[in-house]
Design a protein that fits this description.
The structure is a single chain. Helix content is about 25%, strand content about 20%. It contains 5 helices and 10 strands. It has a 7-stranded mixed β-sheet with strand order 3-2-1-4-7-8-9, sandwiched between helices. It has a 3-stranded antiparallel β-sheet with strand order 6-5-10. The longest helix is centred in the first third of the chain and has 27 residues, at about 30-55. It is globular.
C-alpha cells in the first residue's frame, strides 16, 4: 500500500549549515537578526526538499510540524504551495502534534533537522532526554527524534526517513535500522561542526525521501506500555519528575510527565498580551487583554 499522506516533524539544530540557533543576548543585534533569519531559511528549504521528494514518491498530502522552540520558525511565504503547516505556540501542540485530527489520515513520518539527546558526546547542541522504563523491563533513552518515532508508533505510523547530525541519526537507526537517512553534519563539540553544503543536503533529502516512500513494509517503532517517562534537559543526570506517573501508552506517559516538569506552565497561566483563548481551555480573564487601570489615590 502506497504512502499517500506524509507527516514531517522538523527541528532546526540538525539542519545543514546550522551550528547554533541564536546569540542569547537581551538585545536583538543586527548580527543576531541575520543569524536567525538565515537559519530559518535553511530550515524552510530542507522542508521544501523533503516535500518535493514526498510528492515525487507518490504522496498526495504533506503536513509539516514546526517543532523548534515556539513553533514559529518556518517561513510560510517560502514553503512549497502543496504543503500544509502546523506552527505557532508549542505549548498548545506538545507531544509533537500527534493528537492532531489529521494524524488519522497520516501513514508515514519524516524527521528533519534532528539534534542529539542530552549527554551525547560530539552531538549537535545536545539537549532533551526521555528516560523511558516499561513494565516489561525495557529501558529507552530517547532523543526528540526517537521520541517522535515512538509517538508515531502509538498511532501505527512508521518513520521512514531521518535527517540530522551524525550522532542523532546513528542513535535513531539503532531502533529502526531500515530507515532511509541523510547525515547533514558531524559535530566535534556541541557548537562546532563539519557540515555538508545546504544545497547538497537538500538534494540528498529530496532523493532520500522519495526512495523512503517506496518502503511499504517498515514497521512502526512501538514502546509497549505500561511505562513511565522522566525528562532531562541539558544534564542527563538530572531527570524530572522524581516520581513519574505510569500510563498505558508512551503518548499518555509523555503527556503526564510534561505536565509535571519544572518548566511546565498551563496555557491559561501564560499571558503575552496577545494570547487569544484556546478553544480547548476555559476563556481567560478579561485582564489578559485589557490592561488594569492604576488606582489614583485621592489627596
Amino acid at each position: 500500500m502506497k504512502h499517500k499522506s506524509v507527516y514531517i516533524v522538523v527541528d532546526i539544530e540538525g539542519i545543514a549549515g546550522v551550528v547554533f540557533y541564536e546569540y542569547r543576548s537581551k538585545e536583538m543585534s543586527m548580527l543576531n537578526y541575520e543569524l536567525l533569519h538565515r537559519n530559518r531559511v535553511l530550515m524552510t528549504e530542507e522542508v521544501n526538499a523533503a516535500a518535493r521528494g514526498a510528492f515525487e514518491g507518490g504522496a498526495e498530502k504533506v503536513l509539516v510540524l514546526d517543532h523548534h522552540g515556539a513553533g514559529y520558525n518556518i517561513m510560510p511565504e517560502l514553503i512549497d504551495e502543496r504543503i500544509e503547516l502546523i506552527h505557532g505556540r508549542s505549548e498548545q501542540h506538545f507531544t509533537m502534534g500527534m493528537h492532531h485530527p489529521d494524524m488519522e489520515e497520516t501513514d508515514a513520518l519524516i524527521l528533519l533537522g534532528m539534534h542529539a539527546k542530552a549527554g551525547t558526546v560530539n552531538g549537535s547542541t545536545p539537549h532533551s532526554l526521555l528516560y523511558t522504563k516499561t513494565d516489561g523491563g525495557e529501558i529507552y533513552k530517547l532523543s526528540e527524534a526517537t521520541m517522535s518515532m515512538a509517538l508515531a508508533g502509538d498511532c501505527g505510523i512508521p518513520c521512514l526517513f531521518i535527517a540530522g547530525d551524525k550522532a542523532t541519526v546513528e542513535d535513531a537507526l539503532e531502533l529502526s535500522p531500515k530507515m532511509k537517512y541523510v547525515i547533514t553534519k558531524k559535530h566535534f563539540a556541541s557548537q562546532v561542526a563539519r557540515t555538508i553544503a545546504p544545497a547538497l543536503s537538500r538534494k540528498l533529502i529530496q532523493k532520500g525521501v522519495k526512495e523512503a516512500l517506496k518502503n511499504t513494509t517498515l514497521k512502526p517503532f512501538i514502546i509497549k506500555g505500561p511505562c513511565t517517562i522522566r525528562i532531562g534537559d541539558r544534564n542527563p543526570d538530572v531527570l524530572w519528575p522524581e516520581k513519574p506517573e505510569k500510563r498505558n501508552t508512551f503518548t499518555e506517559a509523555l503527556d503526564s510527565t510534561i505536565r509535571n516538569v519544572p518548566w511546565y506552565k498551563p496555557i491559561d497561566k501564560i499571558d503575552d498580551g496577545w494570547r487569544y483563548p484556546d478553544r480547548t481551555h476555559p476563556v481567560p480573564d478579561t485582564e489578559w487583554n485589557i490592561p488594569k487601570k492604576k488606582s489614583v489615590k485621592k489627596k
